[in-house]
Automatic annotation (TrEMBL):
Monomer or homodimer. The keyword Cytoplasm applies. One of its GO terms (molecular function) is 2-alkenal reductase [NAD(P)H] activity. SMART domains: PKS_ER. It is found in: Cytoplasm. It is an enzyme of class 1 (oxidoreductase). Pfam families: ADH_N_2, ADH_zinc_N. Belongs to the NADP-dependent oxidoreductase L4BD family. This is Prostaglandin reductase 1.
Length: 334
C-alpha cells in the first residue's frame, strides 16, 4: 500500500490565493488494476491557468497541473517500470494513471520524448505544452515575417520568454514588457530582445512609440488590460494579435477592470485578433518538440527555469509565480 499526498483546493480564490484555500491530504492508493501505472512525481508545474480555472471548477477539487514522474509499478506493458512519463495529474507526490483516460483536454498521459540529454523538467515547460503554446500560439496565429516588429507582454514569463526568442529566430525585431528592471536587463542581455521595458515605470504609450516608431506588426498578449489596449492602438495595417492570457485580471474580484476600447483600431487597421487554447494544437507536438530541442541544443533558444524544491513549497511557488517572481518557467522539484 502506497501512501500519497495531494493538494486539495477547498475554496474559491478571493484575490491572491491563500494557503488556507488548500489542504494537503494524505491517503492510501488502491492496488493497481489492469492498464494502470503507479507514478512517483519528480517535477510539478505551477501556471497562471491554475488561478484562472479556479472559478470554473467545483470545489473541493484536486489541484490539477502538469507533472513529470517515473513509473514505479505497472500493469500496462506500454509503460514499464522506470519509464519517465508526463501527465496532468497535478500537485501530488504519487498518482495512479491509465492510458487513454482523460478528465480534461489537458489530461494526456505520454512517455517522455527523447530530449537529447536535456532536463526532464522541460516537459512541463519549453518542451511541453508551454513550448507548444509559445510556438503555435505565435507562429500559427501571427505568422511573422522577417523584419516585422513583435511585441510580447509578460515577456519574462514561461511563455513570453520563449515567444520573444522564437520571434528573433524568425528574424523579427522584438520588444518585451516585464515588471522589473532586473527582468528588463535579463530579456535584453540574456535572451536577446531588441528592447525591453518595465511597464511599471515607463509611460507605455510613449516608450512603445520610441521603441517601435514604425508601428507594431504582431502582438503576443499574455496580460490583457490597458497595456494591451495601448499596444493594439499602435499596430500597423493588417497586424495580428495572439491572445494567450489575461494575467493582469486573474486576481481581480468583482467586475472586470476597464480598458480603452479596441474597435476603432481593429476596424481602421484591419487587425486580426485571435484567442486560443493550446489543446487545439496537441497534434503538432511530434513536429514542434524536436525543433525546440534543436534550438535549445544549438543555443538559439534559452529555456530558463525558476526552480523551487520540495512538495510542501508548491503553494509558495504558485503565488510567487502569480506575483511575477519567476524568470522563465516556474517548476517545483519534488
Amino acid at each position: 500500500m502506497v501512501k500519497a499526498r495531494k493538494y486539495v483546493v477547498k475554496n474559491y480564490f478571493k484575490g491572491v490565493p491563500k494557503r488556507e484555500d488548500f489542504e494537503i491530504v494524505e491517503y492510501d492508493l488502491p492496488p493497481l488494476k489492469d492498464g494502470e501505472i503507479l507514478i512517483k512525481t519528480e517535477w510539478i508545474s505551477v501556471d497562471p491557468y491554475q488561478r484562472a480555472y479556479n472559478k470554473l471548477s467545483k470545489i473541493p477539487y484536486d489541484q490539477f497541473g502538469l507533472q513529470v514522474g517515473v513509473v514505479k509499478e505497472s500493469r500496462n506493458p506500454k509503460f514499464p517500470v522506470g519509464t519517465k512519463v508526463v501527465s496532468h495529474k497535478g500537485w501530488c507526490d504519487y498518482t495512479i494513471a491509465k492510458d487513454g483516460v482523460q478528465a480534461s483536454p489537458l489530461d494526456h498521459l505520454y512517455i517522455l520524448p527523447d530530449f537529447k540529454g536535456l532536463s526532464p523538467s522541460l516537459a512541463v515547460g519549453a518542451l511541453g505544452l508551454i513550448g507548444l503554446t509559445a510556438y503555435a500560439g505565435f507562429l500559427e496565429i501571427c505568422k511573422p515575417k522577417a523584419g516585422e516588429t513583435v511585441v510580447v507582454t509578460g515577456a519574462a514569463g514561461a511563455v513570453g520568454s520563449l515567444v520573444g526568442q522564437i520571434a528573433k529566430i524568425k528574424g523579427c525585431k522584438v520588444i518585451g514588457f516585464a515588471g522589473s528592471d532586473d527582468k528588463v536587463e535579463w530579456l535584453e542581455k540574456e535572451l536577446g530582445f531588441d528592447k525591453a521595458l518595465n511597464y511599471k515605470t515607463v509611460d507605455v504609450a510613449k516608450a512603445l512609440k520610441e521603441a517601435a516608431p514604425k508601428g507594431v506588426d504582431c502582438y503576443f498578449d499574455n496580460v490583457g488590460g490597458e497595456i494591451s489596449s495601448i499596444i493594439i492602438n499602435q499596430m500597423n495595417k493588417f497586424g495580428r494579435v495572439s491572445v494567450c492570457g489575461s494575467i493582469s485580471s486573474y486576481n481581480e474580484e468583482g467586475s472586470m477592470p476597464k480598458a480603452t476600447i479596441l474597435q476603432p483600431a481593429i476596424i481602421s487597421q484591419n487587425l486580426m485578433i485571435q484567442g486560443f487554447l493550446v489543446s487545439e494544437w496537441r497534434d503538432l507536438m511530434p513536429k514542434v518538440v524536436p525543433e525546440l530541442v534543436d534550438w535549445i541544443k544549438s543555443g538559439q533558444l534559452k529555456a530558463a527555469e525558476h526552480v523551487t524544491e520540495g512538495f510542501d513549497n508548491i503553494f509558495n511557488a504558485f503565488v510567487g509565480m502569480l506575483a511575477g517572481e519567476n524568470k522563465g518557467k516556474a517548476v517545483v522539484k519534488v
